[in-house]
Amino acid sequence: xxxxxxxxxxxxxxxxxxxxxxxxxxxxxxxxxxxxxxxxxxxxxxxxxxxxxxxxxxxxxxxxxxxxxxxxxxxxxxxxxxxxxxxxxxxxxxxxxxxxxxxxxxxxxxxxxxxxxxxxxxxxxxxxxxxxxxxxxxxxxxxxxxxxxxxxxxxxxxxxxxxxxxxxxxxxxxxxxxxxxxxxxxxxxxxxxxxxxxxxxxxxxxxxxxxxxxxxxxxxxxxxxxxxxxxxxxxxxxxxxxxxxxxxxxxxxxxxxxxxxxxxxxxxxxxxxxxxxxxxxxxxxxxxxxxxxxxxxxxxxxxxxxxxxxxxxxxxxxxxxxxxxxxxxxxxxxxxxxxxxxxxxxxxxxxxxxxxxxxxxxxxxxxxxxxxxxxxxxxxxxxxxxxxxxxxxxxxxxxxxxxxxxxxxxxxxxxxxxxxxxxxxxxxxxxxxxxxxxxxxxxxxxxxxxxxxxxxxxxxxxxxxxxx
Length: 468
Hints:
alpha/beta, Aspartate Aminotransferase, domain 1, 7-stranded mixed beta sheet, 4-stranded antiparallel beta sheet, 14 helices, 12% strand, globular
């Protein structure tokens, strides 16, 4: 077998073109064989099909690039949960834009490593300018805001707590709501910080009276960091950010806002009022592989002043020697805790430039409108109960009078049959089905089909129940 060609240089595109054609054909054929939002049959069936394609994974003699691409990508696609299918709506798992995916191909082909300028000359400028522009969206009235690219909301939250710890020391006490993302508690464990004080969120958002009482009781004993959420994973609700910022100011606490889900609402004139107060936080998490339609990963941590990132500075002479830095080579090591990093800013920059503010706002508004339409359909349906009107694009519902076992069985049966992907969450004493709408191409017919699947299956399960 000849030496395989490389992806870069002037010869790379010619080598890539036929391979990409094979990949695109495999993606299309695999999706046709699946013919739905996910494969039917459940874990055992999917595992068996994938292992058949993988066998042998490391043959004595290779099968060649086209055969390997067609076989494995075809099998992976056939066995995928497809977020581009309107009935795949369980999680904050976005269908990536084609243009962002195409940009990601270029990132892979060029393979700049974002830990030193000599590995990423142009990419370092692209990342610096893209992060600065995103930071300015969050902190429009600050002279020198900045942001880092992260692998997602979890890493961004960890970095936010790390920076707060470096400002205030290891006695930093985090105060968070019961509605907060699990990564906050994990970050305190990872960083050796005290276990967070948890404030109740009985209606899905932080109870302000309880927060005030907690801040009052602990004021002066330890440095305090309140973490608020703009878009919870369970219900999509947004904490009262301005009121929380006021309490933090009164009690001398810092504020971090996890806006991994809701942060992009800033780009929509229709919905940006929902995240008023983001600019009052000491740090903000944003995640554009949720309501930003980017292939993962595309996380952001923004701060109001670039000096807030100084504690991340790290010296490794082979990457940022002092004399190189003094001679004008940019020092990139302080832009992440990771060393080798992909240029994830490229796909973000391409999307921002291609769509502009109005294009991104249209995607956000379409998706939020679809969520409200789904809520309307549920409200009008005699056999379904709606939890609440959606704040962003998350809609919770359940069959009327169904017990939790039935709700869980409905979800798993839809998965096993390959009909739909719905999430689940427990709130107000019940288990609810969760539709997280992120597909701007979703139509009213798609939503009606989703509800029909649920109601017909509810009837089927009820009629077959031995306790009926």
